[in-house]
Amino acid sequence: MTKKEKVTIILDLLREHYGPTKCYLNHENPWQLLIATILSAQCTDDRVNLVTKDLFQKYTSIQAFAEANQAELEQDIHSIGFYHNKAKNIIACCQKLLTEFGGEVPSDLDELTSLAGVGRKTANVVRGNWYGIPSIVVDTHVKRVSNLLGLTKNQDPVKIEFDLMKIVPKDKWIDINTQMIAHGRKICIARRPKCAECFLFPYCTGGQALQKKKS
């Protein structure tokens, strides 16, 4: 079986089991998605959604975040990790959106990554989920699953992103993000993978190696 054939089977199985899934972060517009994604760094989406439920009612615009008092914003997001840096970055990010982008969230990758607190992962979340631009998002689940499946040997998220871009058809880039996340949450769980229940196990070189070590 060639790598291309393997990828095709994996993509078909992911779609069969999870379908076209949607972004897990609650949002109604691009700036809410941008801020929620900044908050989601090293934090669960569920926790972020709990916080943004009230946060987006208090701060109802980019301008409101740009003018926020940092200490007060820190308290508003205190239950999320790294709240000090995230509050600082959100304020700086929104100030730049106002001064350089006319209060609009850009879709260009370089422009997005020029914003405080925005790396390739955050930029690609916005590009894919709001603007519909084919983008691969490498979070902890995508990193783990793609490594176990033998789709990459890299650990660096940017290198993994480019590895996946080479072998996954462009029209599948957005779907594979949320499908791999769903798989990582339900079956390929970091510390207790359910290999016996995994429909991808026959194609999972890493999972097979782990099972051999246990036996």
UniProtKB/TrEMBL annotation:
- Cite the EC number: 4.2.99.18
Gene3D superfamilies the record matches = Helix-hairpin-Helix base-excision DNA repair enzymes (C-terminal) (1.10.1670.10), Hypothetical protein, domain 2 (1.10.340.30)
HAMAP family assigned: Nth
Q: What is this protein identified as?
A: Endonuclease III
Lineage of source species? Bacteria, Bacillati, Bacillota, Clostridia, Lachnospirales
Q: Which residue intervals define the domain HhH-GPD in the entry? A: 39-186
Reactions performed catalytically: 2'-deoxyribonucleotide-(2'-deoxyribose 5'-phosphate)-2'-deoxyribonucleotide-DNA = a 3'-end 2'-deoxyribonucleotide-(2,3-dehydro-2,3-deoxyribose 5'-phosphate)-DNA + a 5'-end 5'-phospho-2'-deoxyribonucleoside-DNA + H(+)
Residue positions annotated to bind [4Fe-4S] cluster are C188, C195, C198, C204
Under which main EC class is this enzyme filed?
Answer: lyase
Q: What PROSITE patterns would the database entry show?
A: ENDONUCLEASE_III_1
| GO BP field | base-excision repair, AP site formation
The species this protein belongs to is Anaerotignum lactatifermentans DSM 14214
